[in-house]
Each structure stands twice: as structure tokens, then as C-alpha cells.
């Protein structure tokens, strides 16, 4: 009976193929469909969070336009429209897909993880990230105070600002959603599905490192 290939090497070899493939599939095929699916969910999330500030979320190509109730002081009949870039957040799907495809488990189980993980784990997480980013953008215009390296516009807008502690939480949420969570959450979601594989393939190898002799 031929020796079984090392699962850890299988994982790394698979990752070298599946991660670029998943990224290409996301960019050339899936990105538009993901945006169309996510836009109504994010709009619903924002309407629940700040119903008095959001009018509509309109997908325009790969970008979204968030129409708010905010209006400039010198032009109260105009409504503020904010550009929301969903692409930077939907890249999380590609990382999750690539990790699942690289995992040395049966293909049926990989398909199950791809379907359930995409629909019931990654979708809500990406909606949360985009919503945090959009809420921060609204807060930046309302509070008109620099925070986390972001400068408010020169023009002032009508509306009651967020309380200071909420505004600071939105600043933290913006940094996490834009810089940290798009890379961390897909890995955590993959690890949640594959805890046994990680323990068997990765952690067991660390435990079996040969001891050095004096």
C-alpha cells in the first residue's frame, strides 16, 4: 500500500492553487453577484440601526451610493450621498473559499462548508463590516471631528451628532472593519469548521517535533 501523503503538505500545496483560483473567481465572476446580494441586506441593517439617517442604498456598478437624510447647512434641500466600496469587504469570501478548498477533507464536506459558510457565516459577517464602515462615514459628517486619521469635510451638515462615546466606538469599528476583520474573520470562520483538522494536521505536528539531544 503506497504511503499516504502528508496532510500538512497537501494543505500548503492546495493553498498555493486554491487561493489564487478563489481570488480570480471572486474578481472575474462572483464580485458583481455578491454585491447584488449584499446591498439589500446592508440597506436593511442600516435602516434598523439609524432609520432617521438613511434613505436608500443604491448599487451602482461595483460601488454603492448611500443616500442619507443629511443636508448641507447652506443647501438644506439637498441630500448627502456617500460612496460605499463593498469590493474591499467581499474579498473576504475569496479567502474563505480558498482555505476551504485547500483543506485536506473529502470533497463533499468541502462543498458543505462552502455553501453553509458562505450563506450563514460569511454573509452576516460581511454585512456587519460594511454596516460599521457606512455608520462611521455618516458619523464623520454628523460629528465633524477628526478621528482615526479620517478628516471631516469642510462643509457642515444638519443633524444631531452621535454621542462622543458612540462616535469613538464607530471609529474603532471603522478601523476593524476596514483593516483587520476582512482578513481575520474568514480565517476564524474556516477554523470554526475545521477545528478537528487543524488539531490533527497542524497542532499534532508541533507536538511531534523531535526533541534535541544534548
How would you summarize what this structure contains?
This protein is mainly alpha-helical and 214 residues long.
Shape: elongated
Helical stretch tally: 5
Give the terminus-to-terminus CA distance.
37 Å
Fraction in helix: 55-70%
Strand content: 5-15%
Regions with little confidence, pLDDT below 50 for 5+ residues? none
The largest sheet, given as strand count, sense and whether it forms a barrel, is: 3 strands, antiparallel
SSE arrangement, N to C: HEEEEHHEHH
Can you describe what's shown?
It contains 5 helices and 5 strands; from the N terminus they run H-E-E-E-E-H-H-E-H-H. The model has no long low-confidence stretch (mean pLDDT 91). Helices cover 65% and strands 10% of the residues. The strands form 2 sheets. A 3-stranded antiparallel sheet has the order 1-2-4, covered by helices on one side. Strands 3-5 form a two-stranded antiparallel sheet. It has one domain (7-52, 88-203). The longest helix has 43 residues, at 7-49. 32% of the residues are buried. With 214 residues, the chain is mostly helical. Helix 1 packs antiparallel against helix 2 (87-102) and helix 3 (107-143) packs antiparallel against helix 4.
Overview features:
214 residues; mainly alpha; 10% strand
SSE inventory with pairings:
Layout: H1 7-49, E1 54-60, E2 63-68, E3 71-72, E4 81-84, H2 87-102, H3 107-143, E5 157-158, H4 164-193, H5 195-207
